Amino acid sequence: MAIIEVKDLSKNYRSYKRRDGVWGGFRDLFHRNYFDVPAVDSISFSVERGELIGYIGPNGAGKSTSIKMLTGILKPSSGKIEVDGMHPFYQRKIYTKNIGVVFGQRTQLWWDIAVIESFRLLAKIYQVDSSDFQKRLDTLSDILELSELLQVPVRKLSLGQRMRCDLAASLLHNPRLLFLDEPTIGLDVIARDRIRTFLRQINIEFSTTIILTTHDLKEIEELCNRIIVLDKGHIIYDGSLSDVKSMPGLRRSIILDFPGDAPLEELRQLLSDQVELTLEGKRRLIGSFSPDVIPAAELIRKVLGKYDVADLKLEEPSIDDVIVKLYTEGVNA
Predict the structure, then answer these.
(1) Cβ contacts of residue 279 below 8 Å, gap of 6+?
(2) Is the dihedral of CA 290, 294, 296, 299 positive or negative?
(3) Whose CA, among 18, 21, 45, 98, lies 20 to 30 Å from 167?
(4) How many domains does the chain have?
(5) Rg of the chain (C-alpha set)
(6) Phi and psi at residue 127, in whole multiples of 5°?
């Protein structure tokens, strides 16, 4: 059953064309030539309960604007939006009790008081029963390792510590839906790994539906089975990560380790122009190939039929390559 239904959703901002020079600026004070700028242009999609979706796109693609409409912050210019049976903007007061939101650059915690006091205030705002609050706090503290941070003022937390506390704060009222906008921005590798592990855990254990917006493509690859890609206000791809990696024109890699010196020139002659080979060290060859030109099975058969190989590894195209291809050529290229 879908928890989010979006149909032909659009958001336009009003702007005006500025005239040149001092006289033009003076005329603009009294009369302006207004026009609409589409930030989100007639997008449609649905999200099933329990999905963890990567919602990605370059700066200016419309990600943040559409997330703000989905969370009830912005009123759509046109189209239909229904989340968990409610309209986010018009039913915002009751709607926000059922969602959690984390914006990487903003905190919902009070700066000068201890973390636990912020949590208690949020529990009051969301009308969470005291016994339920304690149970959720214990669970979240255990998963996110917050016990040593609860008595610390928010202003004394590192960025990674604050993000863990913000994630806990967004889940104290047990929301069915969690919106994350750049939740790991600026964090070190260890903090990012902790948060990714946490998101996987709540998605699996509590069936929390998660919409994740990030520029960290590794994060998308590790967490999401489905991605929605936006560009210039339009959805240019909506589907599984595995399907988009199978688009024509994307190259795979084969890594070959030999017991002795790698036969670079001999393999180049054997494979002609079907594989681009490079030497890494004395015993390793890395080949880049297109499955449209030579299938992986045929490539492996040719190599193993003539040479002893100590180790062999196939690698799918990186998500970076996939996204670049989507932006530059489109899904049907």
Answers:
(1) 262, 264, 285
(2) negative
(3) 45
(4) 2
(5) 25
(6) 55, 50
